[in-house]
Amino acid sequence: MKKVVGTFLLALIAWHTSPAQSNQKMDTFIDQLMAKMTVEEKIGQLNLVTGGEATTGTTVSTGVEAKIKNGQIGGIFSMSTPAKIRKTQEIAIKQSRLKIPIIFGMDVIHGYRTVFPIPLGLAATWDMNLIQQSARIAAEEATADGINWAFSPMVDISRDPRWGRISEGAGEDTYLSSRVAEAIVHGFQGDNLAAHNTMMACVKHFALYGAAEGGRDYNSTDMSLHRMYNEYLPPYKAALDAGAGSIMTSFNDINGVPASANKWLMTDVLRKQWGFKGLVVTDYTAVNELTAHGLGDLQQVSALSLNAGVDMDMVGEGFLTTLKKSLDAGKVKIADIDRACRFVLEAKYKLGLFDDPYRYCDEKRAKTVIGSAANHAKAREIAAKSFVLLKNENQVLPLKKTGTVAVIGPLANSGPNMPGTWSVSAELDKTASLVEGMKAVLGNKVNILTHLGSNLLEDSIYQNHATMFGRTIARDSRKEEEIIADALKVAQQSDVVVAALGEASEMSGESSSRSELDIPKNQQNLLKALLATGKPVVLVLFTGRPLTLTWEDAHVPAILNVWFGGTETGKAVADVLFGDVVPSGKITATFPRNVGQIPIYYAHKNTGRPYGNSGDFEKFKSNYLDVSNSPLYPFGYGLSYTSFTYSDIRLDRNTIDDKGTLQASIDISNTGNYDAEETVQLYIQDLVGSVTRPVKELKGFQKIFLKKGEQKTVNFNIKVDDLKFFDNNLNYVAEPGNFKVYIGSNSRDVKEKEFELL
């Protein structure tokens, strides 16, 4: 073994030299290695297969061990534990001809064993430090379990909550999504990708996946280059600029060409315009699916994908089985196979696998790091800060730690649903339910009663689809009226009712698009019955997306949106409900009043006949006749147990030139009775441009802590870069003229001031 590792000692030197020297060492090492490789071995490096532990697609890889021995596998995902990964790595190191190590990946989306809130919930914290910490802990745990490649962050902008994977991203906004992407990349990769506790990030899904037509997963996208460059592409680039080592293709088409065969996207934009020098991998069987898109048989589409600039084929094995034939037929060039092979080998080199292929296989570290008490404590803290208080009429919340509380609803006693979608490594059988978490926090201070209240969904088949992957929620076979009647007996014994309602975790996520976004009708019937008791009712809302809550907002006194908070959801909900933590989350995707309003988002363009801000119908204006034209809850919205007052904005100057900085200041006062955090949001509007511009765009935010009665001044420095956009010729420019700056607690409730760019 010493001799084998010694063959690759060049890699170690690279991490103790300058970046230029390191690149030179890496290039020399890989040149020498590739000179020894056959064409078949090079193609083998482009093959990414699944170990089958987590269900992330319909295809399962076969003959893995034999293929490793034959040099036909470059990477494996959905395999874990140091023992299993070491055993698999040993096959490559001891039994393949060139002893090239394997890279091991996993969908580490919002935590590993310790699960944090779903990404839409993480973004609602508006706390980049906490988001980075969550990714750092995820990397610590995953690498301790042998994994060195995370298929995260997902940075797709989505303005259609019907799309299930809106839960997996940061929401609708370009600027915020870019900052979240950077934080996650830094958390995963740290300062040294070759360290034993860092892992390579994989940005996904490139590109425009969140703009799928009708919110239907995998569907077509169609948009102008102007919108693409200004609104949808920036988060991908921000993640890559932060150092992400890899990027994943999306399933959809862009300008009529699916991403995995789109040379303009993968080569012209990604490689040439952005200068990306990392690894490009497809999503699950995306190469094979090019056939269903109508681009040809497996050999044709595999050649198209390689020629477009894709380096690694996930699961489908089209590269493995057809590229040699295409090379012999002149359909692909050896230079493109070499290019793809080099990027795969470089990723392994940067991870330090050539120096020590077993650096991630320390069973002792796994026992101490994974699921530690400190990690769970951080998960609880972050979960509580992700929750968004949507309504709190007459200060129903926080609850008193006395008396009896009835926790009623299909999400009250379902621990496996608490981690949320895309928590493939969660220990579902060890995750506390909401009721269990509340009891753990409150002890004997509060008497907690509980009841199912209603089935998750009236239709049992629909419920089976909505509770896959071990997220089953028990059904009561009795009539709805009988179930509710039983629940009301429990409610009548309580001082306050907590209604745990909404979606199951698998009602959002991949292939979980919904055409209706109401709380299921049978759950709403339960909620109406609970309200009719006259007891104070708090709706604890579980969801992976914005829902249409028009009725709930009108009738329920208090609504706390808890998304899916991860491993420590139950305890974190108790912390907020009973006032140990003051809610500070702010939504990052607009909540519509009904599905007909979609897409609805704050950074929309004006028309020649814009409607007013009241939301009321105006004839011959751009609005709906049958519904208020305002959102139910605007982007950036979230209440607190305290209240904050904003002063007028002060500018230190009224003009700015291309080299200057303008400072906008505002005083924030905590005028309520609780110490609390507030996210102060800065928006800018370009009033006159060569192209139409959004009515406002987020350009900065600060999360501050204020004790009750305290006042702080918040300063924002506005630079010319904050005013730039891609014009009609895709030049990145700031055009002289007048601008408005807005500062407030959300995108709607703002103060404003005007300035000029000279």
UniProtKB/TrEMBL annotation:
Keywords: Glycosidase, Hydrolase, Periplasm, Signal
Superkingdom of the source species: Bacteria
A molecular function (GO) term: beta-glucosidase activity
Record flagged with keyword Cell wall biogenesis/degradation: no
Signal peptide start-end: 1-22
All residue ranges annotated as the Fibronectin type III-like domain in the record: 678-747
One GO term (biological process): glucan catabolic process
Enzyme category, top tier: hydrolase
Name assigned to this protein: Periplasmic beta-glucosidase
Species annotation: Sphingobacterium siyangense
